[in-house]
Design goal:
Length: 344
Amino acid sequence: MQASQGRSVGLGLALASALAFGGSGVAAKPLIEAGLEPLHVTWLRAAFAAVVMLPVAWRHRALVRRRPALLAGFGLLAVAGVQACYFAAISRVPVGVALLVEYLAPALVLAWVRFVQRRRVSRAAAVGVVLAAGGLACVVEIWSGLGFDALGLLLALGAACCQVGYFVLSDHGGDGDDAADPLGVIAYGLLVGAVALTAVARPWNLDWSVLAGRADMDGVRIPSVLLLAWLVLVATVVAYLTGVLAVRRLSPPVAGVVACLEAVVATVLAWVLLGEHLGAVQVAGGALVLAGAFIAQTSTPKAEDAAPVIGPVDPVGHGPYGTGPAATSGTADRSAAAPESARP
């Protein structure tokens, strides 16, 4: 009975995390359209969330000495890289399209496993890659010469590539007896990301008057500061914390299934709140992308297939074993949590 209750709580937390993460794009895009640069929105999100997470960072301050490379890579890729590319992408293409392109990341991780680490991947994993690629072709309407801004699509692909680096780092961070606590990694990732973004975004040039005004959300004027508060407190802090707690109560594969709802939530919210409509073929393509991403995440190499095909196994990671707080949670089975900290 207690295990069943724990599972129910875990599913509720995972759903809450997916809903929170899914709302980041619809909160950020009106701010960008109101006059803020995508990099400035990214900096605001990371900087204010880092301030909120300072007590957590202080509690896990030993991580700075134990895992400096992990924290630096996590902050640069999972926080700064993914979010900057994603917010820049949604300034040019619909939120749902940008997020679906980003969901190519699990397929790209499998390419890393096969061609960089030179390890075998299962036939099911290959099917997942094909499904994701075919679905993406439908989403971007490749038959019509790409139905969306090419630079926006490249930026979304850049977010996916940053996620690949994040996946590998996260898997490495959860290995062995020196596994890093996911809350500490998230807190320091936000701090590192905020510092890195400060140098790039130059927030002293930020138009703060935008935050004092209102932003348009499909004809409805919303106070900009409320959108920023949602982006920082709900779509970042609450989303990360509920994601971590969910994975600690569920197996990573189950958490991964629920987290795939993030793309659905983001697309529906963008449809309802921003008026960004996708056609039937694009919706079907999105379903294929999610199906392929799910198969790619869950089709990890078996233990007996862990030997390299050619040459040594790369010591940094071991394939798509973890993609979020689960990946740094130190759980024994890290086969497929969905992208949490790397999520936009």
